[in-house]
Amino acid sequence: MSLSNEVALVTGGGRGIGQATCRKLGSLDAAVLVGDQDMTAAEEVALAIEGAGGRARAVQMDVCQAASWRQAVAEAMNWRGGLSILVNAAGFDRPGQVSEVSLEDWRAVMDVHLTSCLLGIQAVSPVMRQKHYGRVVNVSSIQAKYGVHGQAAYAAAKAGVIGLTRSAAQELAHAGVLVNCVLPGLVDSPSLREGLSDEERQRIVSETPLRRLARPREVASVIAFLCSDEASFVCGAAWEVTGGWRM
Ligand SMILES: NC(=O)c1ccc[n+]([C@@H]2O[C@H](COP(=O)([O-])OP(=O)(O)OC[C@H]3O[C@@H](n4cnc5c(N)ncnc54)[C@H](O)[C@@H]3O)[C@@H](O)[C@H]2O)c1
User: Fold this and answer.
1) Domain-wise residue ranges, the chain
2) pLDDT digits (tens, 9 = 90+) for 86-125
3) CB of 38 sitting under 6 A from ligand 1
4) What does each C-alpha distance from 178 to 1, 14, 86, 136, 145 come to in angstroms?
5) For ligand 1, atom 42, which residue shows the shortest CA distance?
6) CA-CA to 112 of 20 to 30 Å: which in 60, 119, 153, 245?
7) Measured from the CA of 20, which atom of ligand 1 is nearest?
8) Is the CB–ligand 1 distance for residue 189 below 6 Å?
9) Which residue's CA is the nearest one to ligand 1's atom 36?
């Protein structure tokens, strides 16, 4: 599989699943824009890709701001003259049960997980339509299907990502732009390590047929496939990457 003709923008590229995706796409010869609000982390990832012989550039982004998306697309156009892949992987969490979550936290989580995907698709699709080729992969979560006790906004936003993915997939397929999403189970990323107790981790591992959490690169491999020409008939899919957890 080669992505040598592709230019990819990956949000949340500084850490976790986004970082692993940048590295994977870079290793497949895509030119990679590492988008993150943390510019230091994004630059480190871009340098690592270049150090491994790839092509990469860091771009500071706030995925909740339309202006930031316009800048990132302009950066891609100036750098490589196009943009054919978008991976929406930025995220964070504000825990809160349905009965108590503040409107401020609810909106912040919706913005970073769901509105960001809308803004991203709106920003990149004109460029992709023009070339009649594009791939968009949104990172949802298996929690979208089952809900999470204490993370109401997160589960709702991730469910919204599936609905948005499928609407965009229907609207853009005729223009050669395939939109899909992935639904990871628990992935051993920095944010998960910060937010999950040992007991909770053990419980989930024991419920998972593969008896471990995912590595970020295992999600990145599925994303890379969906970004490739090999996935030419995959449209509007919600691809589970869970090790069998909650199948
Ligand atoms: N880790 C898991 O178990 C898991 C499971 C399912 C889905 N996901 C989803 O995968 C994605 C990545 O998760 P992760 O665990 O790798 O996260 P992470 O916290 O390790 O990395 C997220 C990155 O997003 C960046 N970011 C946050 N807000 C941003 C903003 N407004 N603009 C630009 N960048 C921003 C952060 O700086 C960070 O580098 C998220 O959407 C998350 O919800 C994670």
Assistant:
1) 7-241
2) 999 999 988 899 999 999 999 999 999 999 999 999 999 9
3) yes
4) 18, 25, 11, 6, 22
5) 91
6) 245
7) 16
8) yes
9) 12
